[in-house]
Design brief:
514 residues; alpha/beta; 2-enoyl-CoA Hydratase, Chain A, domain 1; 3 domains; 8-stranded mixed sheet; 7-stranded mixed sheet; elongated
């Protein structure tokens, strides 16, 4: 028995050493932590229970029988983050470059199954050179096992992916199937084919950073929702993000003990809006004043900046914020912002997080490129997402809600529960200039002074229709409120809607406009 215990101790010690001292030092030289160092930062002290530490690969081809490492390049188990249970896996780049194998898949899939059975979030720390070539089709099939479970877990438990090194080839699809992806600046990258293959096939000379670095996927492709300056910062972001999410789809998100006065008024909002209705402002300034102080956490901050999606708190309760950003493209909707908004709505709806929408949108962005690239299809995603969402839905129209954007951005027809508007709200079928020309084009052309006539018609249109009161008259706006009362009104509305019960028509699934 003592010999067997000694053998066990040696294997456990080998597992803790990863790929050995030299490779650990090389990992540190790249500015990266090891898998176990990362887990030590992420998880509460003493909470980690490892599973599969002694597993090793079964393939002996191409000299692999001489390269056996306990754990096979991935550390898996469960632990706690701020007292809440989570399932985790962390790929170990110091062991065979973290290459993905059949055994790695078995270990990761085991944690995915446990996360769904236990109803706890799944966190994956990715740092791998890709599929283990020596295993051939078995490593490819192993990816498929993970992808299948990513889809099965979607909408059941939160899935968070942290890219902390290379993530190439088939490996990129698993993070893309999860709810949130966080990338570390300067040391992480994601791409289907690396720079070498790109150059060989297309002749393009590109670095790994320019091809698939953090900036690329946070600002251009939209694959990643968050970026962090270091491994430690990324893991801290995971902890923060989890604080807004429930353990699973049957629970409400965790609420904090209120620390900000729910009745706090913000008089500065009463005079916040610019005098000229075509002048920009930063919607973040409004959001920061309305939500609990310091609680705003932007999602997809660098991607499609003409829209804002963020988590925040109102009286300690987690909420999802969707807002137009007038400081960029006048807050108009386009291809990317439509994708950004609709994806965020669906995440909030999956995890029982109320939606609060701040509207200032002149409509969908016009242009040949937008039409050719499918702005109709992409714009329809917002409509589908809002209409299908069953969580409490509140809206505040701060200024423009013109044309199709009024309908799309959480209108009553999309199942909105309570709609507020500021006195500065402008709700109309189209802009005043276009409406004046459409309605009075002949009269303007026949006038002695066409410019003055057009100006008079525009002023009349704005006076009669560019205000929230007609919408309130017909019940499309529940109440026109003083801007300073926005926080108080939203909190009271959420209190009423906390017990909202609503279900969609039973069906297998609908056709999301993909």
């Amino acid at each position: 028995m003592s010999d067997r215990l000694e053998t066990l101790r040696k294997k456990r010690e080998a597992a803790l050493q990863g790929g050995g001292k030299v490779r650990v030092e090389a990992q540190h030289a790249r500015g990266k932590l090891t898998a176990r160092e990362r887990l030590a930062i992420l998880l509460d002290e003493g909470s980690f229970q490892e599973l599969g530490a002694l597993a090793t690969h079964q393939n002996s081809d191409f000299g692999m029988d001489k390269l056996r490492f306990p754990g096979d390049g991935v550390v898996t188990g469960f632990g706690k983050v701020n007292g809440r249970r989570v399932a985790v896996f962390a790929q170990d780049f110091t062991v065979l470059g973290g290459s993905f194998s059949e055994v790695q898949s078995q270990k990761i899939c085991r944690m995915m199954d446990l996360s769904m059975e236990a109803g706890i979030p799944l966190i994956g720390l990715n740092d791998s050179g890709g599929a283990r070539v020596q295993e051939g089709v078995r490593s490819l099939a192993a990816y498929g096992e993970v992808f299948f479970r990513n889809v099965a877990a979607s909408g059941v438990v939160p899935q968070l992916s942290v890219i902390m090194g290379p993530c190439a080839g088939g490996a990129v699809y698993s993070p893309a199937l999860t709810d949130f992806t966080i990338m570390v600046e300067g040391t992480s990258n994601m791409f289907l084919t690396g720079p070498g293959i790109v150059k060989a096939v297309t002749g393009e000379d590109v670095t790994a950073e320019d091809l698939g670095g953090s900036w690329v996927h946070n600002a251009r492709s939209g694959v990643s929702q968050f970026s962090a300056e270091s491994d430690a910062a990324a893991l801290g972001l995971v902890k923060t993000l989890l604080g807004y999410l429930p353990q699973n789809n049957t629970e409400d998100p965790p609420a904090l003990t209120p620390y900000d006065d729910p009745a706090r008024l913000e008089p500065s909002l009463d005079t916040f809006m610019p005098e000229e209705d075509n002048l920009p402002y930063d919607m973040r300034d409004i959001l920061e004043l309305v939500v609990d102080r310091g609680s705003l956490l932007e999602n997809h901050e660098q991607y499609a900046p003409n829209a804002i999606t963020a988590f925040a708190r109102l009286n300690g309760q987690s909420v999802g914020i969707v807002a137009n950003q007038p400081a960029v493209l006048s807050g108009s909707l386009d291809l990317d912002s439509s994708d950004k908004i609709s994806r965020f709505i669906r995440i909030c709806d999956m995890f029982n997080i109320p939606l609060v929408t701040f509207v200032d949108c002149p409509g969908y962005l016009p242009g040949v490129d937008q039409e050719y690239n499918g702005v109709i299809r992409h714009g329809a995603k917002i409509i589908y997402a809002y209409a299908q969402a069953t969580v409490p839905k509140l809206s505040v129209i701060t200024r423009k809600a013109i044309g199709g954007s009024y309908v799309a951005m959480s209108s009553k027809q999309m199942g909105n529960d309570i709609a507020f508007a500021w006195p500065s709200a402008q709700i109309a079928v189209m802009g005043a200039e276009g409406a004046a020309r459409l309605l009075h084009g002949k009269a303007i052309a026949a006038a002695d002074d066409p410019k003055q006539a057009e100006a008079d018609f525009i002023a009349d249109y704005k006076e009669r229709l560019f205000n929230p009161y007609q919408a309130a008259d017909v019940g499309q706006v529940d109440e026109v409120i003083e801007p300073s009362e926005t926080r108080l009104r939203l909190i009271r509305a959420l209190e009423v809607l906390h017990t909202k019960v609503h279900t969609n028509i039973p069906k297998k699934h609908g056709l999301f406009p993909v």
